[in-house]
Amino acid sequence: EPEVTQTxxxxxxxxxxxxxxxxxxxxxxxxFYWYRQILGQKVEFLVSFYNNEISEKSEIFxxxxxxxxxxxxxxxxxxxxxxxxDSAMYFCASIKGGTNxxxxxxxxxxTVL
Amino acid sequence: xxxxxQLDSQVPVFEEAPVELRCNxxxxxxxxxxxxxxxxxxxxQLLLKYLSGSTLVKGINGFEAExxxxxxxFHLRKPSVHISDxxxxxxxxxxxxxxxxxxxxxxxxxVKP
Lengths: 113, 113
Description:
The structure holds two protein chains of two kinds. In chain A, strands 2, 4, 5, 6, 9, 10 and 11 form a seven-stranded mixed beta sheet that branches. Chain A has a four-stranded antiparallel beta sheet with strand order 1-3-8-7, with no helix packed on it. Chain A is globular and about 40 Å long. Chain A is an all-beta fold. The model of chain A has no long low-confidence stretch (mean pLDDT 91). Chain A contains no helices and eleven strands. The N and C termini of chain B lie far apart (39 Å). Chain A binds chain B through residues 31, 33, 35, 41-45, 48, 50, 55-56, 91, 93, 95, 97, 100-107, and chain B through 1, 32, 34, 36, 42-46, 49, 51, 90, 94, 96, 98-106.
């Protein structure tokens, strides 16, 4: 069964450093998402992406965050200057379109020291 | 975006007992409803979904949920739980809009021997 693949599975970084989290959505999917889950808390929506542009973003997704799909395959989340509170599990998800069923990746755990 | 309330943050039960995890959503438009499960240290996995048709939907691992439009509820049930059902369960409604799936705070189900 097709999967959403995320790398790295775990990244440790120093505060202030840039981080890029990568996702390979399912190949025929059209809508892409990033969600965040701080340890022990709920899953929070960050951003949705369709037709090579952001469709919607939450208040969490401030100027420190950016997304892009540089090569039609990868879907990346960049955090420009990480803060301690960015430590979380980041989940990528995609939808084929017309199904409303999100398929999630296994997540990337970010630890900011 | 949809609003969702999971009424119980934690549900401890003994093995082979029945369980119900409650979910209420707020919506004035057509709604799709999902339950996702997150096993310890893993990503989110679709448990079941309601898109249309029969209000009683069956999912994986013996779980089922009933869509009740008048009560705006989508409670998750299992007649007899197993130790392996210990996980976090998230209710997630969305409308006919691929951007607005939001997750409840989650219910931690702990099955004890």
